[in-house]
């Protein structure tokens, strides 16, 4: 079932403020635009009713189809790493609940987000529309190969773990564009940032993370990851 409106908005706002101060600012999320976006977007609307009371806790939560909405700190960290100024066209791979896309929608000019599960994409689109985020466009398909028709992107964010940084995504980066992506398997992943300089790509390996697998042509096949999602 899609997320929907709730009456406890004032209380959620207090929880959101606490999330920003205690989970984000305290852990060196310093980009004020990112902090403001996290304070503005009502995360609880992207969480299914049965888990909504946990929307602002310091953890990922289930959203159906074996998928998760990422921990607030990880959303903020990955967003900060993209260094958005407001003029960018951004691709997100792995729409899930649509929460990360909403944050990006406040920080960039245009956002394309792609999800392989049709039902998740439809729910995400409903919530994004209810928030009037008209610069966020939801697509259904295999995002491991990017979205060639809308490239180049000044920033690409992948919210599922890949065996390696997919070549099609690197190729769809604009000059000086950034790709932020978890790389690794079921038993260990690192967050990486790739920056394009002409035909050269600089790689930074940042922090250990734990994500669901990226599937598709440039993702994990079920035989490389021991359960289906
Ligand atoms: N960004 C999401 C949010 O804010 O709720 C959380 C994403 S969840 C951790 C990862 C998502 O990636 C899942 O919804 C999964 O279905 C999706 N995914 C995995 N492989 C994909 C692919 N090849 N193309 C598009 N989406 C994919």
Our measurement of the CA-to-CA distance between the termini, rounded to an integer number of angstroms, reads 18 Å
Give the full name of the CATH homologous superfamily of the domain at 60-209. Vaccinia Virus protein VP39
- Which quaternary structure do these chains form? single chain
Which spans have pLDDT < 50 for at least 5 consecutive residues? Answer: none
Cofactors, ions, other ligands: S-adenosylmethionine
State the shape.
globular
The H/E string reads HHEEHEHEHEEHEEE
SSE diagram, text form:
Blueprint: H1 9-24, H2 32-40, E1 61-64, E2 67-69, H3 72-82, E3 89-93, H4 99-107, E4 110-115, H5 118-130, E5 136-140, E6 153-158, H6 167-171, E7 173-185, E8 188-197, E9 200-209
Parallel strand pairs: 3-4, 3-6, 4-5, 6-7
Antiparallel strand pairs: 1-2, 7-8, 8-9
Describe this structure in words.
With 229 residues, the protein is α/β, with parallel strands linked by helices. The chain has a domain at 60-209: Vaccinia Virus protein VP39 (Rossmann fold, 3-Layer(aba) Sandwich), CATH 3.40.50.150. It is 28% helix and 27% strand. The protein contains six helices and nine strands, in the order ααββαβαβαββαβββ. The chain has helices at residues 9-24, 32-40, 72-82, 99-107, 118-130, 167-171, and strands spanning 61-64, 67-69, 89-93, 110-115, 136-140, 153-158, 173-185, 188-197, 200-209. Strands 5-4-3-6-7-8-9 form a seven-stranded mixed β-sheet. The chain has a two-stranded antiparallel ribbon with strand order 1-2. Helix 4 links the parallel strand 3 (89-93) and strand 4. It is globular and about 50 Å long. The structure holds S-adenosylmethionine. S-adenosylmethionine (SAM) is lined by residues 67-70, 93-94, 96-97, 99-100, 114-117, 120, 142-144, 159-160, 211-212, 214-216, 219.
